[in-house]
């Protein structure tokens, strides 16, 4: 492993995790976990006395609810073998984590291929549309607009999905993101901003940029407050989760092409872990009822997720299908025209 990798210690533990559970990959110094003695590489082995948990189960337990307590009790196995009790805040702030299985390799560290990025899919003024579905049921859309200069690529995207609950009530999730990227092989971010909420009720989750010396801007805080932030730059190339699919557009279209990158929060710019993108070969995929030949890319995370995200790119560099996997509720996105994007969508989801 490279000496400049700040996650090297965590990745070493991922080579053979000591217990089943959820390994901490990031612990903020001002978090309850840190106060309890937990550090990156330690493993959450129980929640409210029950375990071992999964990352998905952990996040479901942390969802705010009217009858929920302010925090969730967690048992953490430390690197020295001792266990401590800690409180996890319901807003999920202060840590990042991944699933792990005892003695099972959760990270493969091998060199990337050497390639120059192909940025031909990012012509200035490009509009990209995807129709989203959940469990085969149309659920909404995503629209991305590209602005490009000689030095940077900017992506402005809007995703809105929804459906009906068992009691007949409707639900929706709407997220808007703006990112600015360098024209390098990682599409490294220099600005990220993220909002959630329906039109008129949008809440800013964060808007930060790199000014050449520090990351500065604002983060969303409890109660709808905004906090000024500033933190030192991170030396490695980083991209936000919602932009990893776009990264697949820039890579070599050949089997075993691989790229390692760092992941930063969509609204924070803070780097939390390393991930990999790997081309696993050719595949035929369904795109809005049509069979399409494409290259299949797999987003490899830390740990054992039990289903990674898949991105399908055609020879002419179109991102035609995205399978977001269980960590994103199994949403599937298919590239269509603007005229097709709302076919079958829930009535309360409106095209924007």
Would you write up a description of this structure?
This protein is mainly beta and 352 residues long. The chain folds into 2 domains: 8-100, Roll (Pdz3 Domain); 127-335. Helix content is 7%, strand content 45%. It has helices at 8-14, 32-35, 55-61, 244-248; strands at residues 21-27, 43-47, 71-77, 83-89, 95-100, 127-134, 137-148, 152-164, 170-182, 189-196, 203-210, 215-220, 226-231, 238-239, 258-264, 271-287, 290-300, 309-313, 319-323, 331-335. The strands form 2 sheets. A 15-stranded mixed sheet has the order 13-12-11-10-9-8-7-6-20-19-18-17-16-15-14. Strands 4-3-2-1-5 form a 5-stranded antiparallel sheet.
List keywords for this structure.
mainly beta; 2 domains; Pdz3 Domain; 352 residues; 15-stranded mixed sheet
In short:
Helix content is 7%, strand content 45%. With 352 residues, it is mainly beta.
Rounded to the nearest angstrom, the radius of gyration is 20 Å
Our count of helices gives 4
Name the average pLDDT.
89
Shape label = globular
Secondary-structure class: mainly beta
Proportion of helical residues: under 10%
Cross-sheet strand order for the largest sheet: 13-12-11-10-9-8-7-6-20-19-18-17-16-15-14
Low-confidence region ranges: none
Largest beta sheet, briefly?
15 strands, mixed
Please tell me the total number of domains.
2
| Strand runs, count | 20
Order of helices and strands: HEHEHEEEEEEEEEEEEHEEEEEE
DSSP strand content: 35-45%
Q: How far is it from the N-terminal to the C-terminal residue, by CA? A: 45 Å
């Amino acid at each position: 492993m490279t000496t400049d990798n700040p996650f090297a210690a965590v990745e070493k533990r991922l080579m053979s995790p000591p217990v089943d559970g959820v390994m901490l990959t990031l612990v903020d110094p001002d978090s309850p976990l840190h106060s309890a003695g937990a550090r990156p590489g330690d493993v959450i082995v129980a929640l409210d006395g029950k375990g071992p948990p999964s990352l998905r189960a952990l996040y479901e337990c942390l969802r705010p609810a009217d009858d929920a307590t302010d925090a969730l009790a967690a048992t953490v196995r430390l690197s020295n073998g001792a266990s401590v009790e800690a409180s996890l805040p319901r807003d999920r702030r202060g840590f990042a984590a991944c699933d792990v299985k005892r003695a099972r390799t959760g990270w493969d560290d091998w060199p990337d291929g050497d390639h120059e990025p192909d940025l031909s899919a990012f012509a200035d003024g490009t509009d990209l549309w995807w129709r989203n579905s959940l469990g085969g049921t149309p659920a909404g859309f995503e629209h991305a607009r590209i602005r490009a200069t000689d030095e940077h690529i900017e992506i402005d995207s809007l995703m809105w999905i929804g459906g009906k609950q068992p009691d007949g009530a409707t639900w929706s999730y709407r997220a808007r993101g703006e990112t600015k990227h360098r024209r390098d092989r990682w599409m490294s971010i220099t600005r990220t901003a993220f909002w959630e909420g329906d039109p008129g009720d949008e809440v800013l989750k964060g808007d930060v940029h790199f000014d050449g010396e520090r990351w500065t801007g604002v983060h969303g805080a409890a109660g709808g407050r905004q906090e000024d932030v500033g933190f030192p730059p991170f030396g490695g190339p980083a991209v936000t989760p919602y932009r990893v699919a776009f990264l697949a557009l820039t890579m070599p279209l050949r089997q075993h092409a691989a790229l390692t990158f760092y992941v930063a929060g969509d609204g924070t710019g803070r780097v939390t872990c390393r991930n990999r993108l790997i081309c696993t070969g050719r595949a035929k995929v369904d795109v809005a009822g049509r069979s399409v030949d494409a290259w299949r890319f797999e987003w490899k995370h830390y740990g054992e997720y039990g289903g990674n995200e898949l991105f399908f790119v055609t020879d002419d560099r179109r991102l035609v299908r995205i399978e977001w996997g269980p960590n994103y509720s199994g949403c599937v996105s298919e590239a269509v025209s603007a005229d097709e994007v709302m076919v079958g969508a829930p009535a309360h989801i409106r095209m924007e």
